């Protein structure tokens, strides 16, 4: 069972990873 804090943290991490993925693609070219 995840608390609301855990869910919010996971969403933030997921959003950060999504943005990082885009940056990574541009940076590694």
TrEMBL record:
It comes from the Bacteria. This is Transcriptional regulator.
